[in-house]
Amino acid sequence: MTVTRRPLHDGWTAIAARGTVPPAVADAGAIPAQVPGSIHTDLLAAGLIPDPYLDENEKTLSWIGLVDWTYRTTIPGVDPDADERHDLVFDGVDTVASIRLNGVEIASVQNMHRSHRIDVTSALRAGENELEVAFRSPIRAADAASLALGARPHANHHPYNALRKMACSFGWDWGIDTTTSGIWRPVAIESWSDARLGDALIAGDVVEGVPRVRATASVDGAADGLRARLVVAGAEFEAEVRDGAVLVEGDVPSAEPWWPRGHGAQPLYDARLELLRDGEAIDEHERRVGFRSVAARLQEDTEGIGFAIVVNDRAIEIRGANWIPDDAFPHRVDRARYAERLAQAEFAGLNLIRVWGGGIYESDDFYAECDERGLLTWQDFLFACAAYSEEEPLWTEVELEARAAVIRLASHPSLVILNGNNENIWGRQEWRWEGRLDGRTWGAGYYYELLPAIVGELAPQVPYTPGSPFSPDRDDRQNAAERGTMHVWDTWNQKDWTHYRDHRPRFVAEFGWQGPPTWSTLTRAVGDDPLTPESPGMIVHQKAITGNDKLTDGLVPHLPLPNDMDDWHWAMSLNQAVAVRTAIEWWRSLAPYNTGTVTWQLNDCWPVTSWAAVDGDGRRKPLLFALRAANAPRLATIQPGAEGLTLAATNDTDEDWRAEFAITRRSFEGVPLAEQTWSVVVPARGIERVALAADVAAAQDAAGEMIRATAARGSAAADATADWFFAEPRDSSLPAASTEVAAHRTDDGWAVDVTAGTLVRDLTLLVDRIDPAAETDEALVTLLPGETARFTVRGATDADAAAFSDRLVLRSTNDLIRRDS
Question: Is the pTM above the cut of 0.90?
Fold first, then answer.
């Protein structure tokens, strides 16, 4: 091997170079800096700023993004003559910076989303070398770039669309405004002689039923007389290096297919691409690959144009969620944190994660975890909710960024969609951009020309879509329910969640409902006294426009608005869960017309009231349990329609589901009032429906009756239960909850059995109120009188058994009903 890599992560300092800083920061001078890192986390570690995530600190720290910062270190012990070539390699610089070596500028960079390889062979000197990265204020840089390129429409309050920087770093309707600077990914010096592989990509595919591998790369250095060898799964292929480029490919018949979770196994194979001179390897590139075919199928029918993701010739029912950066300072997210979050995605029954276009191209650790878990990934190119200039220097930066991203990510078998943008094509049509653009470019050249050409050249095994949402005809309406993909946001922004059933989309790529973080996360981040929905810290941690009004408007059709903060928190958490559960169950009942849902959103980047199912401290919100229920592989739901109520049974497994359903209208006291049975075989990957009998579907006392449909236990399937209530909780005679709680210690927590004395709706244990580290395996359980639910709690080992009966821990919908005294 001729290439050696030496990380340069030690000995860095940071100092304010220009701009107004607090006296304590000025007096401190140069402070220790972490690389990878950011100026915010460096200032925090030095004790010079409070935690940006707490209380109103975001506002008081806004000065950081207005300052130029300079990072410095010394590269020790360099021998420039030891190798023919020395490259300084920055995997990520955030964002506009001058890089200087021994006082001489060696590069000027302006793109957070790409790496930078700089030949420093002639600039290095023997012994120590001084390395400096001088950052320009991202706010001032974005403002200047907006003037230079011409102003264009965008969301939020900074012109983030003028810079190739993480858009949500400037704040979002769930995100903190950090506008940070720093060397956010690793930096190293690479030394080599002879030749090296560059831009190497190894990917598996399945072509006409046969697994096939393809490797491409460029060659830097003396390429004459070189060969390339590719080794994977017992197969070996060689080819000549021609015109400084590598292309090696061949069939790998022994490889087994890679499948999404729930459809099969995820075999992965170590692949190695070697650069050979005289039969000896002088450089190599290694990847883990899987073999699968994938297509984004657009199929016209009598009702429009359907959209489906097809893997190994099988249309996959998509049960997905959108992903944002898991931390506003993404350098803090390591593989263990990715693993924790993606395990929560699996818990929620998800099979696809969409990496949203206002964030980043996540690290290889993220995609490797998805590969191993069988979680499909959909990666947006990084354009979101804005018009983008197609002029220089932005065009070249986008091209280099996109090529680098595709080369890095396309090896991963989990990657099944590369998507041009988030909401920009739709936004141009429906957000009144035309007049504001005044004839300026807005991004069409990227979405319809540049990006599909790059994907087609480098990663033909990965489908490309121009935007989300999109319709196949670029001149057509881009958020049409009956064609392509759709984002559903009128429900939440203007209407309450019952209106999800007004929509019959072919595929939903975004929809969602807000709710607060868990109580322990909220009270850790916000110290307001008193704490109210509108106290100062709460408002800082609510980023949606009129967000609290929308929370209230979406609650009161279903439940009274509480005046107590504990009840407000529970009501909004519950309403979020019920809203999203309702939407997914409705759209799944439309299969195969509807082929998938992608909830907004799985995770948060800080503690905030948002659409996430997992809050900024990584805790499960009730919504995560609602996702698990609605995404069950075998699901029963009762749905309304023009002809009355229907029971839909969905079977997203490989085996037929033989079920005997008992469908009973009952009083809230549990008394059967009318009943029917349904014996059904739901085919594998299929759906069956039955209309409810008139006497079952029609209530005599809407306020005090419900329908329960239960599939009997059997060897072929677990239980499936569906409930239907004729009246909203606030309009019903739902009684005060009567329960008996028996809590027993286990090796790592508790087994908590709750027996209902009355009908109890959406019974939930908020165990983080007992112990912030505790978790339960169950939530949102509806019990008829006499039924028992078991909650397995991990943690809270020092708690008292009585804690699980506390009114703020043991919650239900019943708690939120006002009753006449």
Answer: yes
